[in-house]
Amino acid sequence: MIICKTARELEIMRQAGNIVALTHRELQKHIKPGITTKELDHIADTFIRSYDAIPSFKGYNGFTGSICASVNDQLVHGIPGDRALKDGDIISIDIGADFQGYHGDSAWTYPVGTIDDKTSKLLEVTEESLYKGLAEAKPGERLSNISHAIQKHVEAHNFSVVREYVGHGVGQSLHEDPQIPHFGPPGKGPRLKEGMVLAIEPMVNAGKRHVRTLRDNWTVVTTDGEMCAHFEHTIAIVDTGYEILTKAKES
């Protein structure tokens, strides 16, 4: 069942989303060669808690980190550890914050130092595809219009959309209905309604779309070892279209 949020709930979720956005902004200052993903995790954990929020991912189904930190061919769910970032790497950081019982959720892929042109294009196209999808988010439209817009943009640039992992509803649970694939035909699925809160998160591979999970039972990597990117915003459906909840509103 898709849960539409009340005005009061949306206000709390704006605050949760803002905390997530500000945490991303804080981590950006520290993403440089030499820092470890565990150090980034500690910075994020401390920052989120300073806003009287709780990291959504900490302890989620046994996950040990406060963020997901996925480097290069790691798509999602990378466990923070002793890996030090190097010049030319990319890192996808997924952040969730639980504020007063409601979650915000956003992921972004960042360059470390100077990256090559192909990888830069991958990041550019994946971010663009997110906003192509968001442009379809408005009351009365079908959910799969978002999915189709993302796939169309990604494949026009000869990259691949991952099929196994999808977007989702967000609220008092980190993952709610509906599931939102980032591929498929338009005109399918439920009609969007005001008050729906959705996490749209295209995951895109530079090579083929196939992925696998490592022996830690968390980290997902591209099967062919190619780079991959992940961009995500939590949005609310409003009368005029959509509102990004995970966009920084204060410094």
TrEMBL record:
Assigned keywords, A-Z: Aminopeptidase, Hydrolase, Metal-binding, Protease
Catalytic activity: Release of N-terminal amino acids, preferentially methionine, from peptides and arylamides
Record: residues binding a divalent metal cation 1: 94, 105, 232
Similarity field: Belongs to the peptidase M24A family. Methionine aminopeptidase type 1 subfamily.
Subunit structure comment from the entry: Monomer.
Function noted in UniProt: Removes the N-terminal methionine from nascent proteins. The N-terminal methionine is often cleaved when the second residue in the primary sequence is small and uncharged (Met-Ala-, Cys, Gly, Pro, Ser, Thr, or Val). Requires deformylation of the N(alpha)-formylated initiator methionine before it can be hydrolyzed.
Protein name according to UniProt: Methionine aminopeptidase
Lineage, uppermost ranks: Bacteria, Bacillati, Bacillota, Bacilli, Bacillales
